[in-house]
Known about the structure:
Blueprint: H1 6-56, H2 70-73, H3 79-85, E1 107-109, E2 142-146, E3 168-173, E4 178-182, H4 189-192
Amino acid sequence: MKKFTLIELLVVISIIAILMSMLLPALSRARDSAQEISCRGNLREINTLINFYLQDNHEYWVPKPYMGSTYLRTYVSSLSTFQELIFCPSAKNDYYDWGPGWMKVTYVIASKNRYAASGDNLSDEDYRMSRLSEIRRPSTAGTMMDGSENWVISDTTWERRRFRHNGGANILYCDGHIERKTDNTLTFDVFLAR
């Protein structure tokens, strides 16, 4: 029986190492792609919750800008399911952790009231939430995107956006479609569109 020489063994190990070095980046890209698809799925589910809210509230937009609010949580069967839904799987340490008892949120939302602020009183004209029918171009009006914390996106919080998916961010629009934009192609007016 012939035994392997040290040279043959080293050649086999080096071939395996070369193959691994070629496969690992491909596997990493596949993992990143799967996480981006999962993030899009989360945003699609959140859009479904927003639509439930709109149907139950005469098409008025969700009044609280933050995702942990009870306005959307009431449509989900369990708190842990809701936590999974509002957390992007690509988020590493690029979000703000408020500590124990707080939900970890990795999406920012654009409030759809007149001043892009949180409003509880629907009859107060200053804080009246927009109705879905008042948003003239829902396909160009962004409502949510990858972000760093549980907050409204505005011109003063623009730095909270995150480009987690190979240099891009997933954006949910009012009509329910999701687009991936890079820092070069994303402008703040996407969230001002009505």
